[in-house]
Each structure stands twice: as C-alpha cells, then as structure tokens.
C-alpha cells in the first residue's frame, strides 16, 4: 500500500519534474559546461575556462556591471516607493478609483517593445515631446538617448513608469487583507497617519515587500527589449546592461562560450542578492 502511494506521488510529480529538468536544470548545467569547456571567438582555440580570466580584464564587462548595479539601485527602490504610494492612494474611498487603478496599471499591460517605441517619441531629439516642452522655455533640448551622462537615467524613468503599476497591484491586494479593526484601535489612541503607517500598515506589508523586492531586482537584471529598440547599449556602452551584453556576445559576436561565462556570473550575482535580501528583509517579515 505504501509502495503504491509512492508510485502515485512520483507520477503526479513527474510532469513538473520533467519541465524543471528540461527548462531549468539542463539549461543551467549546459551553460556552466559551455563556460568551462566550450570554445570562444575571443580566446581563439583555448578552453573557455580562460574566459573567466578574460572577463576580469574586460573593461566593457565592468562598465556594464556598474551600469546594471546603478540601474537596480535607482529603479528598484523608486518603483517600490511609487507603487506603495499609488496603492495607498487608490485603496481609499475615492470617486472613480476603479478608473484610477486602471490608469496606474495600464503601462504594465503594454509589451516592452510598445513601451520603448512610445517613449522613443518622448526622447527623440528633434520631434520628441520632452524637447518640445523644453523649447517653450527657451531651452535647446536634451539628447536624452545620445548623451552618455543622461541616457541611462532616461531608460530608468521608462522602466519605473512601466513597473510601478505592476507592483502596485500586489500592494493593493495586501492592503485589502489588513483588518480594519487595527486602524480603529489606532484611531482610538489618536495615532497620527504617519504613525499608523509606520507601526501598523508597513510591518503588515513586509511579506509583500519581500516578494516585490525579489521580483524587482530580477527585473532590473533581465531587461533586453527596451535596449534593443532605444539605444542598443549605446552611446559608448553607457546604457549597456548585463543581459544585453550577454545577448550581444551570443547572437551578435557568436561567442557563446564567453556569453555562457557571463551568464554564470549573472546567476551567481542574482543568487548573492537573493540571499542578502532574505537575510536582511525576512527578519522583519511577520506572516499573519
């Protein structure tokens, strides 16, 4: 009887295990294998274990890594803060709040390619909407995507605009699970709105914050579409991010071994960040 239950359990798990092996574990192991034993274009006929050494001397890699860390450092907290602010706003009793929620969530429903083309109309030097507005005040305009000192921040603004509405949905759902009795008890004690948020609302939102934080960090390191449409990593790699650099090495330079080595670095970096997030944030998470 026990043996038959084990067989039944494994049969139920088999479809999920097959999918995990085919689309998760095998690609990861194959990438590690290629990074260690494949051949690459840049290193000639040497084994691509040398690609890790070449990676340390690759100035473009360090620039790309710096760009991606800066991108994540700015977009992640701003996206979360704006998402939480929007969720708090649309969770109140407002006239037409359903339309307001829809307006906030609409950018999330658009494909990234469409979003990039929309923002291209904003950022175009001569016909762009932003430069038209600046022209009203006598400014000659800004080369939003062509100036190395501005281009990366322009991409950040677009990403925050798109992702904040997505994270808002999670915060809004979490806010609606908080018992109103807690707010009534705080009101009886004449607690201020800031005190209620700091002592009641935000602590109860920590499980959602942890979930959203992990997803936001992952999103910050896996964007390719908008770079392909807007800048292709330029000017002079000022907007190049790690995953796009991997894409370039694999599909533009056909150096799959070096691209595999870069992918391993990206996976290790994401694992370290995930461990740090769980170590620092999960201590403050209290599940109801």
Automatic annotation (TrEMBL):
<keyword id="KW-0813">Transport</keyword>
<protein>
    <submittedName>
        <fullName>ABC transporter permease</fullName>
    </submittedName>
</protein>
<dbReference type="InterPro" id="IPR051393">
    <property type="entry name" value="ABC_transporter_permease"/>
</dbReference>
<keyword id="KW-1003">Cell membrane</keyword>
<feature type="domain" description="ABC transmembrane type-1">
    <location>
        <begin position="65"/>
        <end position="277"/>
    </location>
</feature>
<keyword id="KW-1133">Transmembrane helix</keyword>
<feature type="transmembrane region" description="Helical">
    <location>
        <begin position="69"/>
        <end position="90"/>
    </location>
</feature>
<feature type="transmembrane region" description="Helical">
    <location>
        <begin position="150"/>
        <end position="175"/>
    </location>
</feature>
<feature type="transmembrane region" description="Helical">
    <location>
        <begin position="7"/>
        <end position="28"/>
    </location>
</feature>
<keyword id="KW-0812">Transmembrane</keyword>
<feature type="transmembrane region" description="Helical">
    <location>
        <begin position="196"/>
        <end position="218"/>
    </location>
</feature>
<dbReference type="Pfam" id="PF00528">
    <property type="entry name" value="BPD_transp_1"/>
</dbReference>
<feature type="transmembrane region" description="Helical">
    <location>
        <begin position="102"/>
        <end position="122"/>
    </location>
</feature>
<keyword id="KW-0472">Membrane</keyword>
<dbReference type="InterPro" id="IPR035906">
    <property type="entry name" value="MetI-like_sf"/>
</dbReference>
<comment type="similarity">
    <text>Belongs to the binding-protein-dependent transport system permease family.</text>
</comment>
<feature type="transmembrane region" description="Helical">
    <location>
        <begin position="257"/>
        <end position="281"/>
    </location>
</feature>
<dbReference type="InterPro" id="IPR000515">
    <property type="entry name" value="MetI-like"/>
</dbReference>
């Amino acid at each position: 009887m026990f043996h038959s239950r084990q067989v039944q359990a494994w049969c139920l798990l088999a479809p999920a295990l097959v999918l995990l092996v085919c689309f998760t574990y095998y690609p990861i192991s194959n990438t590690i294998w290629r990074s260690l034993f494949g051949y690459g274009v840049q290193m000639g006929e040497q084994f691509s274990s040398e690609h890790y050494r070449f990676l340390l001397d690759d100035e473009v890699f360090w620039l790309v890594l710096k760009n991606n860390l800066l991108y994540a450092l700015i977009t992640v907290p701003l996206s979360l803060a704006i998402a939480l602010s929007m969720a708090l706003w649309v969770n109140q009793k407002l006239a037409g709040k359903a339309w307001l929620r829809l307006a906030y969530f609409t950018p999330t429903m658009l494909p990234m390619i469409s979003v990039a083309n929309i923002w291209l109309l904003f950022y175009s030097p001569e016909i762009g909407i932003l430069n038209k507005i600046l022209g009203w005040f006598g400014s000659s305009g800004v080369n939003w995507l062509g100036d190395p000192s501005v281009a990366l921040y322009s991409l950040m603004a677009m990403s925050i605009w798109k992702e904040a509405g997505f994270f808002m949905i999670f915060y809004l759902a979490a806010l609606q699970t908080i018992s109103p009795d807690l707010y009534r008890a705080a009101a009886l004690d004449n607690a201020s709105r800031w005190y209620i948020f700091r002592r009641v609302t935000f602590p109860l939102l920590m499980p959602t914050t942890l979930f959203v934080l992990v997803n936001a960090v992952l999103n910050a390191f896996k964007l390719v579409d908008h770079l392909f449409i807007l800048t292709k990593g330029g000017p002079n790699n000022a907007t190049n991010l790690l995953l796009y650099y991997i894409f370039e090495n694999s599909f533009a330079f056909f150096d799959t071994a070096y691209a595999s080595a870069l992918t391993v670095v990206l996976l290790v970096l994401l694992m370290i960040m995930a461990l740090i997030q769980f170590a620092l944030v999960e201590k403050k998470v209290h599940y109801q």
